[in-house]
């Protein structure tokens, strides 16, 4: 999507309600609120089963022990914890994060790591450092909504590459890179979530990873590998990271948001040292230094807690929820619906029978007391109307089974409507600016 897709003209609705509309930078005009935000406010009502948000179930953490740990940080390391720190992040924490990454088969040096405010900030810093307006960023389709928002905020030309059940299509990636080169447009990076993709739930196969790395190397393109869910695997075999197959052309993003807590906002980027240095400079101007307090809490957690056991506990819990969702979908979904079967992570991507629009169906679903995220939010170009993201991380297995029953009620209602009046799909939004969803 080019910058001009997102321009808002004076005199449009925004200018009537916002007297500052003519002052905003072009990049701020690309920052648009979600059309479905109002529905999500409704969706957070207690009677609604929300299959929408990607919130980890932090209530499963030993909260009392974490409370003690926070108290110890204040009483034993208070002056350091309450002081400024460095923009690169606490050196001991960076060592611990390297140890954490060994579970993914990554051999990293602490100096190549920058601690960020969740991996979201790493995405922002990378885009800030690499992308000028109009530069091409390639992503899988569909992809993580807030990554799209970040790339759009920096006025990137976001181009999608399709996925199948084995991950991104390496041939199509090759074609997209060749086309951009022919157009003389620099491709700044290829953004991918190889494990239990958000929103697709798809994991890239080992063969595909090797092909993708070959293509990216041939075109000399940087890869941004976003891996917040990698350790949340419920079955199947772990696959090698792209980072470990790269030759200095991969920036790897990690996060403790899903394996510990998103509230602590600890993520990181592992990058070639020259890139890491630029990211630190960008982080300095964005926030001066990271929260020392949160870093020392996490440092103590990783030092004193059986955190590997905690990840196993999460995996047992989320695995049961994944199973509840998949078995309910198999038992109840009407003919013509399809869905992915994730080996880990938080999300299933479901596609509705022909002629049914997932966004148009959302009000009916909310009436049935269930919520999901319509597929269009996960594309930069308006595709995805027949699909939806279903999260199984937060509701209990019983709530998930009930949520799927209600969802099926909504789909059957839309099928009746379709069979009476024809397709429920509105005019094609393809090629237009997609409304962004707001959920993690
Ligand atoms: N990348 C992906 C694929 C995500 O799903 C998320 C959060 N849902 C993030 C990055 C950002 O996570 P955080 O900033 O909490 O680390």
From TrEMBL:
Superkingdom in the source lineage: Bacteria
Every Aminotransferase class I/classII large domain range: 67-407
Keywords carried by this UniProt record: Aminotransferase, Pyridoxal phosphate, Transferase
Region of interest (Disordered), residue spans: 1-20, 421-440
GO biological process: alpha-amino acid metabolic process
A Pfam entry, by short name: Aminotran_1_2
Needed cofactors: pyridoxal 5'-phosphate
A Gene Ontology molecular function term of the record: transaminase activity
Residue ranges crossing the lipid bilayer per the database entry: none
Record note on quaternary structure: Homodimer.
Stated family: Belongs to the class-I pyridoxal-phosphate-dependent aminotransferase family.
Name by which UniProt lists this protein: GntR family transcriptional regulator
Gene: avtA
């Amino acid at each position: 999507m080019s910058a001009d897709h997102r321009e808002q003209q004076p005199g449009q609705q925004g200018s009537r309600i916002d007297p500052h509309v003519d002052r905003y930078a072009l990049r701020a005009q690309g920052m648009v609120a979600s059309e479905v935000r109002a529905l999500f406010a409704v969706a957070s009502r207690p009677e609604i089963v929300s299959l929408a948000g990607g919130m980890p179930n932090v209530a499963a953490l030993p909260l009392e022990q974490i409370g003690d740990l926070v108290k110890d940080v204040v009483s034993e390391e208070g002056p350091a914890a309450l002081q400024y720190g460095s923009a690169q992040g606490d050196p001991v924490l960076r060592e611990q994060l390297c140890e954490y990454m060994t579970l993914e088969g990554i051999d990293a040096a602490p100096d190549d790591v920058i601690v960020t405010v969740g991996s979201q900030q790493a995405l922002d810093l990378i885009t800030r450092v690499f992308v000028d307006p109009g530069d091409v960023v390639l992503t899988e389709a569909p992809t993580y909504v807030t990554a799209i928002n970040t790339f759009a905020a920096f006025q990137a030309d976001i181009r999608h590459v399709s996925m199948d059940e084995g991950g991104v299509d390496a041939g199509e990636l090759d074609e997209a890179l060749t086309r951009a080169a022919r157009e003389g447009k620099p491709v700044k990076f290829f953004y991918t979530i190889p494990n239990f993709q958000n929103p697709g739930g798809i994991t890239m196969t080992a063969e595909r990873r090797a092909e993708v790395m070959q293509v990216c190397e041939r075109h000399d393109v940087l890869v941004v590998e976003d891996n917040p869910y990698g350790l949340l695997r419920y079955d199947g075999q772990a696959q090698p990271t792209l980072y470990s197959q790269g030759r200095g052309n991969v920036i790897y993003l990690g996060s403790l948001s899903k394996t510990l807590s998103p509230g602590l906002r600890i993520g990181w980027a592992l990058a070639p040292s020259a890139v890491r240095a630029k990211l630190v400079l960008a982080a300095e101007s964005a926030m001066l230094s990271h929260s020392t307090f949160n870093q020392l809490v996490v440092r103590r957690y990783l030092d004193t807690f059986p955190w590997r056991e905690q990840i196993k506990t999460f995996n047992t819990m989320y695995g049961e929820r994944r199973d509840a969702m998949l078995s309910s979908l198999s038992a109840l979904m009407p003919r013509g619906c399809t869905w992915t079967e994730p080996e880990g992570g938080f999300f299933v991507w479901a596609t509705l029978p022909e002629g049914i629009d997932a966004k148009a169906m959302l009000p009916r679903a909310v009436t049935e007391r269930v919520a999901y995220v319509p597929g269009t939010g996960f594309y930069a170009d308006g595709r995805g109307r027949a699909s939806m993201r279903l999260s199984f991380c937060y509701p209990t297995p019983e709530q998930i089974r009930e949520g799927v029953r209600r969802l099926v009620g909504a789909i059957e209602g839309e099928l009746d409507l379709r069979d009476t009046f024809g397709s429920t799909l509105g005019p094609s939004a393809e090629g237009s600016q997609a409304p962004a969803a707001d959920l993690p």
